[in-house]
Amino acid sequence: MDKQQDFVLRTIEERGVKFVRLWFTDVLGSLKSVAVSPAEVEGAFSEGIGFDGSTIEGFTRSYESDMLAVPDPTTFQLLPWRGDVDPTARMFCDIAMPDGEPAASDPRYVLKRTLAMAADSGFSFYTHPEIEFYLLKSSKFGSEGPQPVDSAGYFDNVPGGTANDFRRRSVTMLEQLGISTEFSHHEVGPGQNEIDLRYADALSTADNIMTFRTVVKEVAIEQGVYATFMPKPFTQYPGSGMHTHMSLFEGESNAFFDPAEPYQLSKTARHFVAGLLRHAPEITAVTNQFVNSYKRLWGGDEAPSFVCWGHNNRSALVRVPLYKPDKGQSARIEYRAIDSAANPYLAYSLLLAAGLKGIQEEYALPPEAENNVWDLSYAERRALGYDPLPSSLDQALSLLEKSELVAETLGERVFNYVLANKRQEWHDYRSRVTDFELERYLESL
Amino acid sequence: MSSRENTRSALARLGFSDLAALPGRLALLGDIWEPRFEGFLPEFALAADPDQAFQALSDLARADPGALERVIRTEASRAVAIRLLGLSTGFVDFFGRYPDLLAEVCELPLVYPSADALYQGMREAVDGLAGDEAIVALRVRYRTYLAAIAAVDLSSDTPIQSQQFASRCLADLAGATLDASLTIARADLAVSSQFRATLAQLDATSLAIIGMGKTGARELNYVSDVDVIFVAESADPDVVATDQAIAIATRLASMTMRNIDGIAIEPPLWEVDANLRPEGRKGALVRTLASHVAYYERWAKGWEFQALLKARAIAGDRQLGASYIRAIEPFVWSAAAGQDFVASVRKMRERVTDRIPSDDADSHVKLGAGGIRDVEFTVQLLQLVHGQHDDRIHQASTLDAIRALADFGYVGRADAAEFSECYQILRVIEHRVQLRHLRRTHLIPADPDERRIVARATRLGTSSEDLDDLWTSTRARVRKLHERIFYRPLLDAVARLPRDGIVLSTEQAAARLSAIGFRNPSGALDHIAALTSGVSRKAEIQRLLMPVMLQWFAAGTDPDYGLLAFRRISENLGDTHWFLRTLRDASGAAERLTKVLSSSRFVGDLLDRNPESTAWFGDDAELAPRPEAELTAETLAIVHRHGGSPREAAKRVLAVRRRETLRLAIATILGLLDDAALGLGLAAVSTAVLRAMVVLISPEERFGIEFGVIAMGRYGGEELGFSSDIDVIYVFRPLAGTDPEAGQRGARAVSTELTELTSDFQLPFDIDLGLRPEGKNGAPVRTIDAYAAYYQRWSAIWEAQALLRAKPVAGSAALLSDFVALIDSVRYPSSLDEQSTREIRRIKARVESERLPRGADRRRHLKLGLGSLSDVEWLVQLRQLQHASETPTLQTTSTLGALDALVQNGLMPTESAETLRAAWRMSSRIRSASTLYRGSSVDELPTDFRTLEGIARLLGYPPGNAVSFENDYLRVTRRARVVFEREFYGQ
Lengths: 445, 987
Description:
The complex is a heterodimer of chains A (445) and B (987).
Chain A: H1 2-14, E1 19-25, E2 31-36, H2 38-47, E3 49-51, E4 67-71, E5 77-78, E6 88-96, H3 107-120, E7 124-136, H4 162-176, E8 181-186, E9 192-197, E10 200-201, H5 202-222, E11 226-228, E12 242-250, E13 253-254, H6 267-287, H7 293-297, E14 309-311, E15 318-320, E16 333-335, H8 344-360, H9 378-384, H10 393-401, H11 404-410, H12 412-430, H13 435-441
Parallel strand pairs in A: 1-6, 14-15
Antiparallel strand pairs in A: 1-2, 3-4, 4-6, 5-6, 7-9, 7-10, 7-11, 7-12, 8-9, 12-13, 12-16, 15-16
Helix pairs in contact in A: 1-2, 3-8, 4-5, 6-8, 6-10, 8-11, 10-12, 11-12
Chain B: H1 2-14, H2 22-28, H3 30-39, H4 50-63, H5 65-71, H6 75-85, H7 89-97, H8 99-107, H9 115-126, H10 131-155, H11 159-191, H12 199-203, E1 205-211, H13 213-216, E2 226-234, H14 242-261, E3 272-273, E4 286-287, H15 289-298, H16 302-308, E5 312-316, H17 318-328, H18 341-353, H19 372-387, H20 398-407, H21 413-437, H22 448-458, H23 464-495, H24 506-515, H25 521-532, H26 537-555, H27 559-573, H28 577-584, H29 589-597, H30 601-609, H31 620-623, H32 628-642, H33 646-669, H34 675-697, H35 699-703, E6 705-711, H36 713-716, E7 726-734, H37 740-757, E8 767-768, E9 781-783, H38 784-793, H39 797-803, E10 807-811, H40 813-827, H41 834-850, H42 869-883, H43 895-904, H44 910-934, H45 945-954, H46 962-984
Parallel strand pairs in B: 2-3, 2-4, 7-8, 7-9
Antiparallel strand pairs in B: 1-2, 1-5, 6-7, 6-10
Helix pairs in contact in B: 4-5, 4-6, 5-8, 6-8, 6-10, 7-8, 8-10, 9-10, 9-11, 10-11, 11-14, 11-21, 18-19, 19-20, 19-23, 20-21, 21-22, 21-23, 22-23, 23-24, 23-25, 23-26, 24-25, 25-27, 26-27, 26-29, 27-29, 27-30, 30-33, 32-33, 32-34, 33-34, 34-37, 38-40, 42-43, 42-46, 44-45, 44-46, 45-46
């Protein structure tokens, strides 16, 4: 530890770093940053940097008003977009109580705790997100709505397009920050992009997602455009999801893989999927945490609105992708509801907890969905047992509020905060008269 | 006949136990062997279990006479066989399979084999062999050496001194075995059909095995896991690239482990445990040196560095092993200190106390109190505290560390010598217990015959009682030594008096105090100095006690306050006889006193004013709550004696109250009282006070009225806590001939006097009249007729609800009984109509939104919050109003009693009632605990971190659990709220 701190202090000297940003995440998933001068870093390592938690969403109201951000020296990185003029570095922080006990409302701690629970059963949890977002000409918009930067579609190669430059630049920057990206292509909507982060343990992935969002926003600004992770910025185009591939490892081996089972899906994997399906409705208020999230979930296209699973079925909530049969290590399942604006720490905690619950209680996996679920009638879906996900934030919250699983996983503090904050959001939304109403009613009524 | 008699007692003297059978067994040996066995029969006295030794050799006579011939050739060889077979059933089995090897072992000289000899011998055993054959040869040779080592150990006339050499030798043998196993792995891999690399590449792959834990520190047991780390390199990158070398080395490492702990014809030896490697079970089995270093630089945690202290290269490539040790050296100890210092001490202590099933606690040589782990804890604690500034005490093995601590003045010479001896005795016992069945156990057997065998094997005793004595006395010494070694020098430091050759500097003493949790060590040193200096008898006793008391203070929430409070009491009491007796009291009075003082300011402050109560700590009978009748008799007697001077009488009555409250507080903290008994006890005290005060005021004589006090709320339910107000209402009735106006004035005067006489700034007695009809707007006193008229005409349903907990406590008996008759019809209505039910729900809903103070957090409010006290009480009261008239058991003033009655009468599901009970109890207990902890009550779950911790500790949480305590409260009340909403609002 000391060595690593020394390394940080040395690098700060050698590179002439002017500011060090201490990063952590609030309960809603926004990145928070405290900038300190190099002179304060040494003290930050030994005692943490005190800050007033009541200024941070979800940290309020408690002893957390006196909290410590303790930087993790292993996450030290120079921020590439700051260039050489005023070199700036960042470190992620753990949030601690004055005596060093982890703070209950630190989302990173919630995930760590859930991962520890998995580790008690001998599992480690790996995730791989496909993050979609839109590039807009500007964050300002007029009566036409937001303007995408181009009109390309899926896999189109746009010569000299902004998107290509943008992607090249982002990928380079992410690499400089030690985050490898796997594959990037243009998504269906105009101006929509997708960048996949490579497989990693869930905590690293969540840290990487936080970094990723910042990098993408920074690069966009650099190139005179605007990037948004809003789940559904356009009525007519698909929303931005964050499909996440997941697997559990037992030591060196993939616990989802069993060559003898259908789709090579082990018993563990089947219970895990069953857990995801059974608890999906009650965790949706976290995986899809905004009023706007439900516009994506119920916007048709490929949105997974019904609780079912399928093999390569792109309308299912949980998809079991094809992989090369001899590559048992890459066995995985994909959860498709979660969107790009989720708090990754909390969302991954709940997905893991739901899956683990399925394993512990040996939930039975319902039969696979073979057709496009959207093509079925309501009665057919009901007959087949494909329940809908909540159709609004309000409904999602009612389910969340009754969930023992969510309360236990998030801890009571975070649970209460999410409920209160999201209820307020729903309340604010409901009181608003929308364009839809004006267009439809003003003249006709 | 007489010779037979002689033989039997002779046999008993030799240690045989199956005396009657032996002659027959001798005869069975036949003509050739019988006389020879008879000739050396006395030598069986060397065996821990002579019968077993005899049986094993007899069996050998039948199975392999040639081998037996060699075994019994000389007295020396016979002695070895008798000792080995006469202790270990494991060796009996092994040599049953390989009789020739027994002969070989018996012919060896009785000296511990050198490390070189072991490494060479193990290598020779597997030389030229491969596959299963090699594995069997490896294991057989290992067990042969194990027997050879045991033979030397068991024959030693000084077993205590011999122990450490045996341990070293065992560690060397483990290393030699891993080394030979790696040789086998290399040979096997070279010819494996799955091996894809070239032989040159295999040869260019260097692999070193690093011993950790007891193996690394060379203090191994006979049967134990062996902790290792694997490190590999390419010796020649031109021949084999590094990543390929790692792949090859990983195969080698797992084959090496399997050769030792995998299934084969000869049973496995021990588990090779590689989990101390970077990233533990999840990490790569083999890493390069650079990768290890990178890991320790970036990721490693404090405890991993502590583990590295014991690292030693034990097998494989010696040069690589040596480079590894050199490379990690700078890390060792660097991070042991730092910011988590107190926390790591705490974790270490938890590891010690996080023991074993309690059944085994008294027979566990390693983890039992006073066992091996306790010695290691003391040593490691001292290394941790003082090792930050002193590299000279960084030894790997326990014995070396004790020696160094003594050499450099941290432990006195005599103490160190005694500590070492205790440690070695414990290890000897452990070794013998393990040898008995060659099993990894640390339990002293329960069977007396088995204990006798172990005792004989230690050569420190001959009977099971001897072993019991040895174990008991050694444990007692270890526990005493911990105090003497860690705490006692603190006293000598403040006195600046060297003892046993050492004196700590003030800084060193302060370091020890902060390590165990004192926040202000220099203040603590002042208190210690004040308490222990001087020539008085008290100072002498306190000097004697202080070391252990410091340990107890440190276990509390606030050691600094505890020590200060103790100093105040001690100074108050001076040389009082009974105080000194209490301190020395064997029943643990001093320990209780320290525990209570370091966790409760409420008690500390009360004790400061009533120091004589310190006497109770030695006697549970003194701490039992006193019954209401007895208390009332005492307060009434005071009134009788001092009635002429009401102020004086009231003062004395209030002193009784303080004394009894203190008694209840102490008993609660010590866990002698549950909440139910506490509630009753506090109610009894309040009642005794009020009865005496009413008599003192004499309403009938002075004002011509009968006067009554009715307890309400928690008081009426006899469920008081330390933070509860005294909710009451007053009733009066003018005596015949008293003018109603004058009566009214008189009743008001009584009310005022009651408030005045009971006012006590030391321990406030908060009479609260808020539950009277019409609340704050109502008259403070009413006649019984006014009550009757009121309830008849105006009474809202919520007033009936308040009456559910009304219980008459003081004043005119006739009036009180009339009052009860009056209210029973109000509070137990024959039926509750829908409108009243709706009205109760509405009021509750309004109370929820209005009564909560501005800015309060609904989730944390202990009285009015979601799922806390008032939710539970309203629900219970609603059910009482609905059902109490036809269900007499529901006619109780107690909330928990009513919950029980609801379940018994099928009016509430058991599970719901349990959820509500848990929430109500937890909220109540938090309120009481907060008062105890800091001397004042709280309405909300505190947000201040330290207060939360203090309350959590009083509720029985282990240290460092404030966050999980908070989480538990929020969970319990969340669940209660769900039940409440369903049952109360009908949702």
